[in-house]
TrEMBL record:
The keyword Glycosyltransferase applies. InterPro entries: GlfT2_C, GlfT2_N, Nucleotide-diphossugar_trans. Pfam families: GlfT2_domain3, Glft2_N, Glyco_tranf_2_3. This is Glycosyltransferase. It comes from Corynebacterium pygosceleis.
Length: 655
């Protein structure tokens, strides 16, 4: 920066969309005034031109500054906005309150020069963003703009009162992959595409756990040549997400003895990323700066945007509902928020209720318990002190790590403007397919390690889920959830032993159930015979609870009757996923249900005796969970240190 500038270190670049992006994606970066007669243009992603008389606002997801987060978690009390202008333009700075209302902060006319605004973070205790708008007086070009710290980062306070750092902006990036070679190569290319991002990457670690290898993919040779001796690939058996991410941490810390080549750079930060994502590369730089300027070492989570609806934000953050020990959206979070329809400026109407769509809650600071490992930055000092991920294969490993870190004094923040694009959960059947085993088993394991209350709420929620699955003819789901309880009740000593074998075992078990067999199309089956009187739509309104009670009674009555074998050969209905609900499926003996991704169908067949058998086993196992939970809590907690040690994981990796 020029002498006398107050902009010492860049925290967040102002970015323009990639060329050719559609309008809805552009709204994540800039908003052009409806009165404009000419569009903003940009030759690259960090400079842009505005025609005389035209206006553009950066009150957007990627370019507004999440001031309340910086106030809560960082060492800073002020932040500097610097805007460099060729031509003549007015720059106006605004902030928002917790309810999204706008307040003018500062502004000035800039002619062939730079404007700097040092802005206080004091008004942002509970929420609020900072942003700026540009009004061009002549044709003008903003050659560079960004948010800066007015000072270098200071040492950070550890939970025991000692200090560490400040740390350099260097990171080891880890991307585990399983049979997604094209996605894995694309993720590497995205990291290499931005020189500023590339410059902070010490090392890239890619555990390859599949049978289709990135090394066989076009583009792999070129991108790995780009990274050179910074790139390390480790082939291993399919140990799931926890095995892939644990390998990254294991190698980044130098292996069991600390001398491994992949950890030689001793990066102060380890960044976890999924392979099947699209990343905004600047998110890497932003996450690093958040971590470096934090008051104390903390985990920095990236938010998830929807890869298939790219202007949609999946969630602002997640917590654990302690009453049932299940993850859920944090308070005030709006699921699947569409920025193209509801930009940050959209406050709605004064009489809007909690269910009305607007952007007010996006101005709140959202506090979380953990962040998913689609993108999560972990300080090295945290990894060294609290250990490796648990050997859970998939599901709950990221939640447990965040909970464990918080107990040790290292919080997590899910940071707005730090983000990746990932496939939405709505296109997955993970609550009923093979993943249902890991959902339940690992939920119970993590509960023993983190939950200090009784298991009654957890078991009640399990009973409710079992009944719903049986009414929906999802027998394979109940069967593998019963297996999950058995493996949980077996205790912690076998977790490493079954790390690689659980999935094949569960898949073999599921083959015996028709609801787990995907057929290419319902057209291969006879035409549905019809299911008169079966509701296929959840009718809302004041009478909905009464109607649902009637539907439940009818569904239960139907479920205790013998099934009609004819409906196991000819389905009664072909249900789309939105129609495949308990109140429709509980009234039929056979129906097809389209998979969430729309690529096939399953033919669900009611079997009273099988349902009765599964329910009896489930009830027996749930009673055992209740009876043994306290004893198992002691066993799992005693085993935690061994399960998360580098020595234990080293034996798995080098077996």
């Amino acid at each position: 920066m020029p002498a006398g500038s107050g902009a010492v270190e860049q925290l967040q670049r102002v970015l323009l969309p990639r060329r050719g992006e559609p309008h809805d994606v552009r709204t994540l970066y800039l908003l052009e005034a409806e009165t404009n007669t000419r569009r903003v243009t940009w030759p690259d992603r960090t400079s842009f031109s505005v025609g005389a008389g035209q206006e553009v606002s950066f009150q957007t997801y990627f370019n507004a500054f999440p001031a309340s987060y910086w106030r809560r978690w960082s060492q800073l009390s002020t932040v500097v906005l610097r805007v460099e202008v060729t031509g003549e333009a007015r720059v106006d700075v605004y902030r928002s309150k917790i309810d999204g209302s706008r307040i003018a902060v500062d502004g000035k006319l800039v002619a062939d020069g730079a404007a700097e605004f040092e802005l206080s973070l004091d008004p942002f205790e509970d929420g609020g963003w900072l942003w700026f708008d540009v009004t061009a007086e002549t044709d003008a070009t903003i050659t560079r703009a960004g948010w800066f710290a007015p000072c270098a980062p200071a040492p950070q306070t550890m939970p025991d009162g000692t200090t560490v750092g400040p740390f350099e902006p260097r990171v080891t990036v880890g991307i585990p992959t399983f049979n997604r070679p094209a996605d894995a190569v694309a993720a590497l290319e995205a990291l290499a595409s931005d020189p500023q991002v590339d410059a902070v990457i010490d090392t890239v670690i890619m555990p390859d756990q599949g049978t289709r290898h990135p090394a066989d993919e076009p583009g792999y040779a070129a991108v790995t040549e780009h990274f050179g001796d910074r790139f390390f690939e480790f082939r291993q058996g399919n140990l799931g997400g926890s095995g892939g991410y644990s390998r990254i941490m294991f190698e980044a810390l130098g292996g069991a003895d600390g001398t491994g080549e992949a950890g030689a750079k001793e990066s102060p930060y380890i960044l976890y990323m999924d392979d099947d994502i699209a990343i905004e590369p600047d998110s890497v730089l932003r996450a690093l700066q958040v971590a470096r300027y934090a008051k104390s070492p903390m985990l920095v989570g990236g938010q998830m945007l929807n890869l298939q609806e790219r202007s949609h934000l999946h969630s602002m953050g997640e917590v654990i509902d302690r009453s049932i020990f299940m993850w859920t959206s944090a308070p005030h979070v709006r699921y699947d928020h569409d920025f193209s329809e509801f930009p940050l400026s959209h406050q709605g109407r004064p009489d809007d209720g909690p269910k009305d769509r607007n952007s007010r809650d996006l101005h709140r600071r959202i506090d979380v318990d953990y962040n998913g490992w689609w993108m999560c930055l972990i300080p090295r000092v945290v990894a060294e002190r609290i250990g490796q991920p648990l050997p859970l294969f998939i599901k709950w490993d990221d939640a447990e790590y965040g909970l464990r870190a918080a107990k040790a004094g290292y919080p997590t923040a899910t940071w707005p403007g730090v983000a990746i694009w990932h496939m939405a959960w709505s296109d997955k059947d993970d609550a009923i397919d093979w993943q249902a085993y890991f959902h339940l088993r690992n939920r119970l394991i993590v509960a023993t390690m983190d939950h200090d209350g009784g298991p009654e709420g957890i078991v009640r929620s399990m009973k409710k889920a079992t009944l719903k699955h049986l009414l929906c003819l999802e027998y394979s789901t109940v069967a593998i959830q019963n297996e999950a309880m058995k493996d949980f009740l077996a205790g912690p000593d076998h977790l490493f032993d079954i790390l690689e074998t659980s999935l094949p075992r569960i898949n073999r078990l599921r083959r015996d159930y028709p609801d787990a067999v995907v057929l290419p199309t319902a057209a291969e089956l006879p035409k549905p015979s019809g299911a008169p009187g079966v509701p296929v739509k959840d009718i809302g309104g004041r009478l909905a609870p009464v109607k649902k009670a009637v539907w439940l009674a009818k569904g239960l009555l139907h479920s205790v009757r013998p099934h009609d074998p004819a409906h196991h050969e000819v389905p009664q209905a072909n249900f789309a996923p939105i129609e495949a609900r308990w109140f429709s499926l509980s009234r039929v003996d056979g129906a097809t249900v389209t998979t969430a991704d729309g690529r096939g169908v399953v033919y669900r067949r009611r079997d009273r005796e099988k349902a009765k058998e599964l329910l009896a086993e489930s009830n027996r196992l749930q009673r055992r969970v209740l009876e043994r939970f306290d004893d198992l809590r002691a066993e799992y907690r005693a085993a935690h240190e061994e399960l998360t040690s580098r020595d234990s994981w080293g034996k798995v990796f080098h077996a």
